[in-house]
Automatic annotation (TrEMBL), chains A, B:
Superkingdom per UniProt: Bacteria
Organism: Phytohabitans aurantiacus
Name of the molecule in the record: Histidine--tRNA ligase
InterPro entries, per database record: aa-tRNA-synth_II, aa-tRNA-synth_II/BPL/LPL, Anticodon-bd, Anticodon-bd_dom_sf, His-tRNA-ligase, HisRS-like_core, HisRS/HisZ
The EC number(s) this enzyme carries: 6.1.1.21
Catalyzed reactions: tRNA(His) + L-histidine + ATP = L-histidyl-tRNA(His) + AMP + diphosphate + H(+)
Length: 443, 443
């Protein structure tokens, strides 16, 4: 076999990066569980008609085909890989509604696949970490205020730059547009959603062309989108534009509550950013995007919102609120910026040196004692000269080498970074907490 | 959308089962890391020619096709989903050999896909947990003795039936067959591999037909396959058959060492079972299969062995030893036998009751304090009557309900299983260790 080359869009990490990813996923999971979200996984495939239900062919679905499908068995013929975790979750909720307890809180951390053109931070296979709270028929509003707190806790527990969650409320936009007299608020929203990409002049044109706005209506839409506040002062800024509509009132009241909850729980976490629209028609209340402070150019690394209809079957309807952390995207960008590092590439804390091949059983015993006490340990691959064994530990990044005492003498352990060597008993010796496990840090 | 139905062969767990799976994977990982295996993940797809390299079309590879591939971009046209974790690992090692430190110890816990006919414990999408140790050019034998110890520790840490690892050594079989005068030892091995399926008479016929054995040679092969020992006594049993060959000597010496290491580390874990062949030509030394005691009918839930050539490019060769736990298979079978249960379906330990809607902020503060102390907490969805809020906790399986004290009185916490209610401060109250997290047990 000739040396293989990477596949564009299918990132694979080297062991140190994978250690960081594993750590990040573990911390995220742990925060999600502290908030009572239960772990869930769905299969990687969905029926093609489900994947294409909303006409989302732009996600470039990967379709499966069996290499040797028997003619009589076409069961796999119409399956595709999921392109997000929302479509499978909706299907799962419908399929298992009778066995779930509502409001149902679940987290789901899985790979998804999209056959898009690969570029920086945009992959064909990537890891997402989603939380959603869904209920039957109605979902209390307060869950919309809870989601940013979960994400704030999850991301601030990581050694990554500070995050800023940008929140808005669809009702504010829709109420405002309707109050202005626009009759197609969704078209207006789609135009405003392009603000960062095409600038205000082009958005004004789009508003006129696609949402039937007059020049002054377009200007008002743009003034709304300019409003940004780290507190509840956005409310008076909106009021000052002089537009009135009951839906606007409702949206403003909700956005105030979200901002108040965030201010109490995590000052500085949230900012009300009235240009945030989110592409999909799907959302009906609060919407979220998340920036890394200092890395705003990366775009949103965590987005979501409130929806009224995750899924429905017959008379049943499942409203909910959810958000998705783009784990691969976040890590790929931070790796690219050399913004994360790991103290050592391997989990191993101790290498037990091997004086002679005959002593392997005894060295294995020492290793077993250390492992039972939670200390990751390997035994040296061979009874080479000690200098060579120490270099082996150095090359792997293992901080401690354990030397069995000869002729009944006490064992010793050497910190090969400092050279300090002390007497030690595997039953009692404990490394400093910082050395016990791999540490993830910002360089 | 009408109610969706499950896809045969693509198992999905309900939240309690998923909690068990998560726990099992975490424990396995933690043992692997204690032995110094580094986490690794590879992409889900491989070039089709890699997947079909060994003519393994019987694995029923799933091929990918993009729904809307641009004519000029055929880059995804020849990709398939991996059917195991060995093919991707071999490719990864070749691709990154210059950046890895050898011997390279990695674990990899990922889904794999095979379009086989689904049946009990056999899926089209399933989770595997693999470890491998690979080196450049040569790999010391002692790693073959280490693998069963890792698996013994990993599986005995789980609340599953006791496991028994069946070990054999390919050199014993090949040396024995050659010593007998058989010239196609691989054909003989393939015949003996069918022993449990088709019985000794049919195997004898096969040996005659496909491996050119005489009746007495076939009988000798069967007598070798009958040998089974919980200790090193298999050696004299083999010697008693009177066959001699240098490769047989080498194999017996190695198998003795594997059994001795296992007996010292974990008495009763391993049994020398000379009928164990493993299907693939790939293996060259020790081979492993693993049974659940009392559930032998499940077949092997963890298999692997020593191989001389994981991958090679030019002059480079990567020998190694590895083993794979069939996690989905193991869990599917145990779930089917009702052999595993979880203390509660959700991570949540405490539900903070809500006296009035106005007190939600205060209740959120209590929840935040408990979470900061590692106690998974939710706040009640609504300020319903306390009876209803308690029933909500009961339905979700949450063991404790926290009642905010009114008018400056002390908060209380109630164990809703026993009814015991005590004064409590969120800064200091701690649940019993058994209630802090979900407990996985055998019923």
């Amino acid at each position: 076999m000739s040396k293989p080359t990477p596949l564009s869009g299918f990132p694979e990490w080297l062991p140190p990066q994978r250690a960081i990813e594993q750590y990040v996923v573990d911390r995220i999971r742990s925060t999600f569980e502290l908030y009572g979200f239960a772990p869930l996984e769905t299969r990687a495939v969905e029926p093609l008609d489900q994947l294409l239900r909303k006409g989302e062919t732009s996600k470039e679905v990967y379709v499966l085909r069996r290499l040797q499908a028997a003619a009589e068995d076409a069961s796999d013929e119409s399956l595709g890989l999921h392109f997000d975790l929302t479509v499978p979750f909706a299907r799962y909720v419908l399929e298992n509604a009778g066995k779930l307890t509502f409001p149902f809180r679940r987290y789901q951390i899985q790979k998804v696949w999209r056959g898009e053109r690969p570029q920086e931070g945009r992959y064909r296979e990537f890891l997402q970490a989603d939380i959603d709270i869904v209920d039957r028929d109605t979902l209390p509003f307060h869950y919309e205020a809870e989601i940013p707190l979960v994400i704030g806790d999850a991301l601030s527990a990581l050694p990554i730059p500070k995050v800023r969650i940008q929140v808005n409320n669809r009702k504010v936009c829709e109420g405002f547009y309707r109050g202005l007299g626009l009759t197609d608020p969704e078209a207006a929203l789609r135009a405003v959603d392009k603000l960062d990409k095409i600038g205000p002049d082009k958005v004004a044109e789009l508003l006129t062309e696609t949402a039937g706005a007059t020049e002054s209506q377009a200007k008002a839409c743009l003034r709304l989108a300019e409003i940004s506040a780290p507190d509840t002062s956005f409310e008076s800024a909106v009021r000052a534009l002089g537009v009135e509509h009951p839906l606007l009132d409702e949206g403003l009241a909700e956005l105030v509550l979200v901002m108040q909850a965030a201010a109490e729980h995590a000052p500085g976490l949230c900012v009300a950013e009235l240009k945030i629209a989110r592409g999909l028609d799907y959302y009906t209340g609060t919407v979220y995007e998340t920036q890394l402070v200092g890395f705003e150019r990366f775009g949103s690394i965590c987005s979501g919102g409130r929806y009224d209809n995750l899924a429905s079957a017959g008379n049943e309807r499942f409203p909910g609120v959810g958000i998705s952390i783009g784990v691969s995207r976040l890590l790929g960008l931070l790796f690219g910026a050399d913004a994360l590092s790991v103290s050592r590439p391997v989990p191993t804390c101790v290498l037990v040196a091997l004086p002679t091949d005959e002593q392997r059983a005894a060295c294995d015993r020492t290793a077993a004692v250390l492992r039972r006490r939670g200390i990751a340990t390997e035994v040296s691959p061979s009874a080479a000269k000690y200098g060579k064994q120490i270099r082996f530990a150095e090359r792997r990044g293992i901080p401690y080498v354990w030397f069995p005492g000869s002729d009944g003498a006490q064992d010793t352990v050497k910190d090969i970074r400092s050279g300090t060597q002390i007497d030690a008993d595997p039953m009692t010796w404990t490394p400093p907490a910082a050395d016990l496990r791999q540490q993830i840090t910002r360089p």
